[in-house]
Amino acid sequence: MRFVIAVMRHETNTFSPLPTVLEDFGRGMSGGPSTGAEAVRAMAGTNNPIAAFLDIARARGAEAVVPIAANASPSGKVTDDAFEAIAGRILAAIGDGCDAALLDLHGAMVTESFDDGEGELLRRIRELAPGLPVAVALDFHTNLTAAMMDNADVITGYRTYPHVDMYETGERAGRTLMRMLDGEVRPVMAWKSLPMLTHMLRQTPSTQPMKDIMDRAIAAEAGGEVLNASLFGGFPLADIPHVGLSAVVVSDGDAHAAEDLRDELLRTAWTRRADFVFPLEPMADSIARAAAMTEGPVVLADHGDNTGAGGNQDVMAVLAEVMRQDLPDVAAGPFWDPEAVARMHAAGVGAELTLSIGGRTDMPALGLKGEPLQVTGRVKTLSDGRFTVTGPMMTGMELGIGRTAVLETAHVEILVSERRMEPFDLGIFTHAGIDPRSKRYILIKSRQHFRAGFEPIAKEIVLVAGPGVCSSDYDLFPFRNLRRPIYPLDEDLQAM
Ligand SMILES: [Zn+2]
């Protein structure tokens, strides 16, 4: 038996000014996506769906062909060149002949030409190999579409946010597909997407309103009521028609059972729609609230410029406010600024410098200009930016954020990097000689994933609404292509 196993993951923020090119698909490493044995080496044994697919293939004695593992940090639309290169490799491998495809996709990829990158890939696969069994593991932030559903046999999604169950999600999709190959089950899927623009800060299944909806899906699957049941919070920062909260249920030949559970899950979510709206606190008020906290570490999470949702990672407004209110003993970063990194590497450890940091990117979709921050300090450390994840998300993966440098001022240690990555593991600071456990304040650009590595060490967490292309204030976004009406932009609508 021969399985084609591949990764194509990107969450596209269509308001981001940064296009996503092929080189970006090496998740934090330079050189772009990996292929073949190199991809297996990088991904096997890690907490990712592909690692489960590889284990399943090995357990069956099947040959695993890995044409590509392409995973990029969230950013703007994927270029046609990048999409065609990635999809082309996957299609070529399938064209060579195989017995099944197991795909580790995101579910919120937008390309220059396609609003639904995953749907387009799956459509082409089915066209090339009709009847080929296809299983797909998707991110919790999937904006589910008919093209994805019509061209796959089994779809499952992460059940956690931060995403710490990636391996398990691959295992769930792969297991059902193997049972299908063995003639044991006949998967049928039911799905629906609700017109709901949920706030990402209100989506996590670890708390309400999502918790017991997800718990119900988990129980239905665990109890054998259905083969798989998944809920997706959706990715709201994309100006495309299919944004929404959705569910997909896979049953064994029983369409009604799948539809009934789908409706039960979505009806509960719709009833609670007001609870998926996040109440905003002004940035300066959040910092002032943090300033009154005497025991650290206090995590300040700037969720308006979160690379994990497509932020530039170079908006300096929150750090400027932290310095204006004179918070002591702060570690901040990483801020994306290759030029500042180059200047500090050229100057060397110990050098005193006055630098412009960040603010190099304008954000025309939201009418925002990049504003660098002038800082004077001493170069504390320089590094190659590589570290191995020890926390619960993507455990075991070797990551890199390009070269890094730390500029130390009287109250702040500022970490600057050549590449962008949302901080979800302490290694992002420790590799550069900063121990976040010992700081009073840790300022990071993240919305939810920081909780994987940083929540266990945090005394307090303060969410800070900084400016940027992943602002939680939807009134700032010039949405033109969403389906309308959609909640909460249009309050009075009946979806269920
Ligand atoms: Zn996600």
What does this molecule look like?
- Keywords: Hydrolase, Metal-binding, Metalloprotease, Protease.
- Its cofactor is Zn(2+).
- This is Microcystinase C.
- Belongs to the peptidase M81 family.
- The protein is of the alpha/beta class.
- The chain contains 13 helices and 19 strands.
- The strands form four sheets. An eight-stranded mixed beta sheet has the order 12-13-16-17-11-18-10-19. Strands 1, 2, 3, 4, 5 and 6 form a six-stranded parallel beta sheet that branches.
- Helix 3 packs parallel to helix 4.
- The longest helix is centred in the middle third of the chain and has 17 residues.
- The relative contact order is 0.13.
- The model has no long low-confidence stretch (mean pLDDT 96).
- Bound molecules: zinc ion (ZN).
- Zinc ion (ZN) binds next to loops.
- Zinc ion binds next to loops.
Task: Compile the SSE list and pairings.
Layout: E1 2-9, H1 36-43, H2 49-60, E2 63-65, E3 69-71, H3 80-95, E4 100-105, H4 117-128, E5 134-138, H5 146-150, E6 154-157, H6 166-181, E7 187-194, H7 211-222, E8 228-232, E9 245-252, H8 255-271, H9 283-291, E10 298-302, H10 317-324, E11 330-336, H11 338-347, E12 352-357, E13 373-383, E14 386-388, E15 398-400, E16 404-408, E17 412-417, H12 427-430, E18 441-444, H13 450-454, E19 460-464
Parallel strand pairs: 1-2, 1-3, 1-4, 4-5, 5-6, 10-18, 10-19, 11-17, 11-18
Antiparallel strand pairs: 7-9, 8-9, 12-13, 13-16, 14-15, 16-17
Helix pairs in contact: 2-6, 3-4, 7-8
Bound molecules: zinc ion.
Zinc ion (ZN) is lined by residues 139-141, 163.
